[in-house]
């Protein structure tokens, strides 16, 4: 339930395999050159049927509160751009909804069901003409981007959350989030060619967000048990499948743009006040970068999502109080607030296009 | 109505104003120090009420949280204090739920009740248990009284059927066993498919609506109760009760777009035995003791592939042992005192791997006094509560000690005018439930009790203008409630992970109005009207810097109203009921997009009483929500539209 902005790096990854690209449209040759707007996924609140997608046109400054003319459904979970399309997983409505990136036309609602039961789609990744989505019933579903329909399914661990695609493999975080207090602590590796789980790695307890850099490393945050086992951040070298703890305060969603990994972390004090940390980690030098995401003292109450405009390096941080329509603060590379957007409830993901 | 107003002014001139005692309600809702509203069995027959919650919706100052359908959870909140502040008293003993703080109202059968009373603040009846003093208001459920004296046999039976597969038979038998004891047994069965249609804004076009059916909303339950009543030569009175209840219901969940699946079910079972013994010791002292044992279990299942085995099943159990002793010292006709002591032990467990096995010991002592003159009443009490929570898993204990005062008065300023003024102050501690402490995703053992102060001032008026205009009663109360240390669930880094904290402060200002009138053209043609209105401003006072500051709390409409009209004729009776609920918000911030629109739910029914020798039948035909209004009390939980019920009640005395 947080954010993603996998859009870009997934596009980049996808582009290194354009030989096999069978998406019906040509991927954007150079997305960083063409960023003209940002899609913001508003998760909505549980049981209220109020998920939506806001769009902010960076060129004209036009803002559209919701591009979905028909209701998106309940609980927007993740959103990525791939090819010419925008893929949105709507967890409690059990579907992935696909929009055209340019025209914002709603192309297809892909209901992911098992008999009468929903599969609860969670997080999305793309690779080689396919979109992969974890489903809370313990699977990864493959979606064909031409027919926009499910064309494969494979079991992974319980309640999979984050997913990343690197060199022919999918890395899937098995949270076991519904098995309180026995959360899961594994990462499934699924071979994309055979679409079968090959092995599992032991990672931190209750892993959630998973993203990859361009050097063949996968990163994840884990939630812990909200009690004596705290949340944390890990790196997996996909060449050796070794898991390394990285002692930076990342424990929520994060975004990788180039060599920079933009993260935030939230810890709770006994009196329920929070400590929010924002930072940038260089995946090449493996060092925290001295640059701060926020330098002008802007106070974020509850960060709920992070996005980075690849072109301008502007950082978008969503702030929520779980009741009000959300606020997205835009910070320039210098860490000073440039803009404030009023978005929907619980904004969690950003896609720049 | 204009005709009635005319009648009123004419009568006022013609007849002297008399203060009337509304005999049906003892103690009188007119003379009581704190607001008291009562319904008798014959009253709710007019109100198209199948369940306790249906009847309570006509009271002022009461909010019923209703998730829709017969099987849907229903709880009562008094003056927006929250369900945990309302005690439910069943034949003199408080019923408590250690997991949620309040029992689901649908657990009590209206068919087996004689009266329903809501006392806000405290009841003037001081000869009762200390635990009655521990809630901010009490819903008192009383089953029919019976005693060996009248040596009668009575058989009652009722059958109701209606829309959405409702089938509801019940029967009771009362008989005297000998000169000392008499016995009453009651049984009821109910089943309902509950697959009612509802209107929802269309998923694909928010400007139009689509009709869907509620899924997994069925319920079946049965309940048995046996009562033994004894009256001894030494004027001692005994009442022993055993009750068993079992239900199996689907939990339909919120009505979610593009999703009709729901796999949640709840099977509940409760058994309890309770004893009351009252003894007049001498001219000055009365004594009563109450004892109870109760056991309840809940088997919650969610059939859903998101769980490892495609199924989540959790069992919850709770037990309570209760003992009370109360002494009443009647100094004179005017002055009396009572001293009540209650000892309660309750425990809770579930099938979680790491169940903490919490238990709670409660010692309550209440010293109460009442000074009563014909035109003046003063009551006061001081409640001491000692609470010790234990966890078997680590043998930890935590204890609390709290003192809560109460003071109230009622005065009739003028000898001739049937007007009374009243007021009270009451302090109440609401203890965290085991659900609050252990069942959230982030357990919090350090929760402190919530605390509420209530202030109330009111005026009551009741008179009769003779035979034609036989009753006019009015009450108006203004109040202010302040809650500190409010226990609320806050999301933690995700809206699916909750943490329960002592966080909130709330300020509640409200006004409750009640009006009752009765006109009789002759003995056979009678018209009764009743109306209730509530205004409430319920503001979040937690954090001055927050945008929620001074916002009206979710699900607290500023205006609610209800009304009933009954016309009795020799050919049958016609009843009309109205429930109105104003706009309210479903989020903690009052934005137009979070507003839920107002609604009016209207019902109509026809009744015919037939008597033949010792046999009596009452035939009822009801049309509920006849305007087919689609509305929600809780957002995403639609209520049923138009529906029908037919019923027959049979009564035989010998």
Characterization of this structure:
The complex is a heterodimer of chains A (353) and B (654). By secondary structure, chain A is mainly β. Chain A has one helix and 30 strands. Chain A has one helix at 7-15; strands at 37-42, 52-57, 63-64, 76-82, 85-90, 95-100, 106-111, 113-114, 117-118, 121-127, 130-135, 139-144, 149-155, 160-166, 169-174, 186-191, 196-202, 207-212, 217-222, 232-237, 242-245, 254-257, 260-268, 274-282, 287-288, 303-308, 315-319, 327-331, 337-342, 347-352. In chain A, the strands form eight sheets. In chain A, strands 3-2-1-30 form a four-stranded antiparallel sheet, with no helix packed on it. In chain A, strands 4-5-6-7 form a four-stranded antiparallel sheet. In chain A, 53% of the residues are buried. Mean pLDDT of chain A is 89; it is low at 1-32. In chain B, 4% of the residues lie in helices and 59% in strands. Chain B is globular. Mean pLDDT of chain B is 89; it is low at 1-27. Chains A and B meet through strand 9 of A and strand 26 of B.
């Amino acid at each position: 339930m947080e954010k993603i902005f996998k859009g870009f790096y997934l596009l980049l990854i996808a582009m290194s395999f354009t030989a096999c690209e069978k998406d019906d449209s040509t991927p954007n040759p150079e997305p960083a050159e063409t960023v003209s707007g940002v899609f913001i996924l508003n998760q909505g609140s549980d049981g209220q049927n109020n998920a939506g997608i806001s769009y902010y046109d960076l060129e004209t400054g036009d803002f559209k509160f919701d591009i979905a003319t028909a209701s998106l459904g309940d609980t927007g979970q993740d959103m990525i751009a791939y090819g010419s399309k925008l893929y949105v997983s709507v967890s409690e409505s059990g579907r992935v909804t696909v929009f055209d990136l340019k025209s914002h036309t709603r192309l297809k609602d892909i209901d992911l069901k098992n008999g009468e039961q929903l599969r609860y789609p969670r997080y999305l990744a793309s690779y080689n003409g396919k979109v992969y989505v974890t489903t809370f019933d313990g699977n990864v579903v493959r979606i064909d981007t031409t027919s926009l329909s499910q064309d494969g399914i494979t079991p992974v661990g319980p309640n999979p959350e984050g997913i990343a695609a690197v060199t022919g493999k999918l890395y899937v975080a098995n949270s076991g989030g519904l098995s309180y207090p026995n959360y899961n602590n594994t990462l499934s590796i699924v071979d994309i060619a055979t679409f079968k789980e090959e092995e599992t790695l032991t990672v931190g307890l209750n892993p959630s967000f998973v993203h990859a850099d361009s050097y063949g490393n996968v990163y994840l945050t884990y939630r812990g048990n909200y009690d004596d086992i705290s949340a944390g951040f890990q790196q997996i070298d996909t060449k050796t499948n070794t898991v390394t703890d990285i002692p930076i305060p990342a424990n929520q969603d994060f975004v990788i743009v180039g060599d920079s990994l933009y993260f935030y972390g939230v810890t709770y004090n006994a009196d329920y006040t929070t400590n929010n940390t924002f930072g940038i980690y260089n995946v090449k030098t493996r060092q925290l970068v001295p640059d701060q995401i926020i330098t002008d003292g802007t106070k974020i109450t509850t960060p709920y999502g992070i996005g980075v405009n690849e072109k301008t390096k502007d950082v978008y941080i969503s702030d929520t109080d779980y009741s009000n329509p959300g606020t997205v603060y835009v910070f320039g590379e210098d860490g000073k607030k440039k803009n404030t957007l009023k978005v929907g409830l619980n904004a969690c993901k950003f896609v720049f296009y | 109505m204009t005709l009635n107003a005319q009648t009123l002014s004419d009568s006022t001139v013609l007849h002297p104003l008399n203060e009337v005692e509304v005999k049906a309600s003892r103690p009188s809702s007119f003379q009581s120090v704190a607001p008291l509203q009562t319904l008798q069995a014959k009253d709710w027959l007019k109100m198209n009420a199948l369940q306790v919650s249906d009847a309570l919706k006509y009271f002022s100052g009461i909010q019923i949280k209703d998730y829709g359908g017969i099987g849907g959870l229903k709880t009562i909140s008094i003056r927006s204090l929250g369900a945990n502040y309302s005690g439910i008293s069943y034949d003199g003993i408080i019923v408590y739920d250690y997991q949620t703080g309040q029992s689901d109202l649908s657990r009590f059968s209206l068919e087996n009740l004689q009266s329903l009373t809501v006392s806000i603040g405290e009841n003037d009846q001081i000869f009762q248990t200390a635990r009655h003093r521990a809630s901010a208001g009490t819903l008192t459920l009383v089953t029919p009284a019976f005693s060996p004296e009248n040596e009668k046999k009575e058989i009652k039976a009722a059958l109701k059927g209606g829309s959405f597969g409702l089938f509801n038979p019940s029967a009771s038998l009362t008989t005297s066993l000998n000169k000392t004891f008499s016995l009453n047994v009651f049984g009821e069965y109910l089943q309902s498919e509950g697959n009612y249609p509802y209107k929802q804004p269309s998923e694909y076009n928010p400007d139009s609506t689509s009709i869907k059916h509620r899924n997994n909303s069925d319920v079946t339950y049965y309940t048995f109760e046996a009562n033994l009543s004894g009256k001894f030569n030494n004027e001692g009175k005994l009442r022993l009760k055993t009750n068993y209840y079992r239900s199996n219901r689907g939990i339909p969940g919120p009505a979610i777009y593009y999703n009709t699946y729901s796999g949640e079910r709840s099977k509940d079972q409760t058994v309890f035995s309770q004893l009351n013994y009252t003894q007049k010791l001498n001219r000055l002292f009365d004594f009563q003791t109450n004892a109870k044992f109760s056991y309840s279990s809940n088997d919650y299942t969610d059939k859903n592939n998101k769980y490892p085995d495609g199924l989540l099943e959790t069992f919850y159990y709770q037990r309570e042992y209760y003992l009370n002793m109360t002494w009443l010292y009647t100094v004179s006709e005017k002055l009396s005192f009572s001293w009540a002591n209650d000892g309660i032990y309750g425990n809770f467990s579930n099938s979680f791997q790491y169940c903490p096995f919490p238990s709670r010991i409660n010692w309550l002592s209440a010293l109460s006094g009442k000074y009563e003159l014909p035109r003046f009443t003063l009551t006061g009490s001081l409640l001491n509560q000692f609470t010790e929570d234990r966890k078997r898993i680590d043998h930890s204990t935590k204890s609390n000690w709290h003192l809560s005062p109460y003071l109230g008065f009622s005065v009739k300023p003028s000898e001739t005018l049937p007007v009374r003024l009243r007021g009270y102050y009451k302090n109440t501690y609401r203890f965290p439930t085991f659900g609050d402490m252990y069942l959230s995703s982030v357990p919090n053992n350090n929760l402190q009790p919530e605390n509420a102060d209530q202030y109330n001032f009111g005026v009551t008026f009741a008179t009769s203008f003779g035979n034609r205009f036989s009753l006019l009663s009015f009450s108006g109360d203004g109040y202010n409630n302040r809650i500190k240390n409010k226990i609320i669930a806050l999301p933690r880094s995700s809206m699916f992970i909750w943490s329960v904290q002592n966080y909130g402060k709330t300020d509640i200002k409200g006004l409750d109005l009640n009006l009752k009138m009765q006109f009789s053209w002759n003995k056979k043609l009678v018209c009764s009207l009743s109306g209730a209105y509530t205004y409430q401003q319920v503001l979040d006072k937690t954090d001055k810097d927050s945008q929620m500051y001074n916002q009206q709390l979710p699900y607290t409409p500023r205006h609610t109203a209800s009304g009933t009209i009954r016309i009795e004729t020799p050919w049958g009776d016609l009843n009309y009921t109205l429930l109105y609920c104003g706009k309210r918000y479903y989020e903690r911030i009052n934005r137009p997009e979070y507003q839920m629109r107002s609604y009016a739910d209207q019902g109509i029914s026809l009744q015919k009483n037939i008597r033949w020798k010792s046999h009596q039948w009452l035939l009822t035909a009801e049309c509920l929500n006849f305007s087919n209004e689609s509305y929600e009390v809780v957002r995403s939980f639609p209520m049923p539209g138009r529906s029908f019920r037919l019923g027959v009640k049979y009564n035989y005395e010998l």
